[in-house]
Amino acid sequence: MRYFLNILLQSKTASTAAERYLLVYMIAVLVIVTSLVIIFFIVFQKRKNKLLLDRIEQQQAFEAEIAQAQTETQEQTLKNIGWELHDNIGQLLSFASMQLSILKMQMPNEVKDKFKDTTEALKDSLAEVRLLSKTLNNEVVLNIGFEKSITNELNRLKKMKFDTAELEIIGEKIDFKDRKHEIIIFRILQEFLSNSVKYSEAKNLNIILNYQKINLVITATDDGKGFNINETEKGSGLINMKSRAALIQAVLELTSQPNKGTKLIVNYPLQ
What is the mean pLDDT of the chain? Predict the structure, then answer.
């Protein structure tokens, strides 16, 4: 009797051990399968994210190339216009001024005074054309310098219609890492100033160049009638400014309110 009980106990013990081993085996298989699924999911997600990033980078590179091509085309167009103004229109105005001077010499003294206003208008027009031609030629802008080009543009506009047009410089000047970026920022400011002339009815313009350690913060303001940005259709001017800023990794912000003027802030990384 005791013999049979021992056999039965041994059989149950063996059965329990086998079940235990089977359970451990099943748990191990489950852990391995789960781990493989998790690893597969992580690898798949990484590949998916990489493909998305590659696609985004390709799209950004494509857009940057398009913007660069458009900017280069615009620069060449402005350069050609600058040449035309300086060489052709300038020569015509010079010839007209010379002819008027000759005609003035042949007139009696009592008539000469009547030519004064016309002579002054021709001289002013000639000076304006020559100054404008310089601001349109990127080689001239690079030659005379970024800050001097802005000053010349403000002086030109001040003569046209503004009571004040001032440039303020804060901090110690830091050279641009790429001098072509000077042209791009100058064109952004030109676009802003051009819009102020055409639409703002402003009397005063102000540009601040704030040289910080790693950034150049440019603030341009006018005291014109302003506008509601949310209600105003984004025209080619704003699009041009933003696309140019994106080319040089600058952050551009334009703010305005009715009757409170317009402000442009460009944050350009110097390093």
Answer: 77
Does some domain include residue 226?
yes
pLDDT tens for each residue of 253-264: 999 988 889 999
Domain with 188 in it: what CATH number? 3.30.565.10
Cβ pair 195, 221 in contact under 8 A: no
| Alpha carbons 261 and 127: distance in angstroms, whole number | 30
Alpha helices in the chain (DSSP H): 2-83, 90-106, 109-112, 116-136, 138-144, 146-160, 180-195, 236-247
- Please compute, for residue 154, the number of CA atoms within 13 A of its CA located in the half-sphere on the CB side: 23
Per-10-residue mean pLDDT for the chain, 271 residues long? 50 61 79 85 82 66 52 56 60 66 69 69 72 72 86 85 91 87 89 87 94 94 87 68 87 90 94 79
Between the two ends of the chain, the Cα-to-Cα distance in Å is: 94
Range of the domain at 173: 165-271
- B/e letters for 157-182, b = 16+ CB within 10 Å, e = fewer, are beeeebeebebeeeeeeeebeeeebb
Q: Is the pTM of the predicted complex or chain greater than 0.90?
A: no
Q: At 211, which helix (H) or strand (E)?
A: strand 204-211
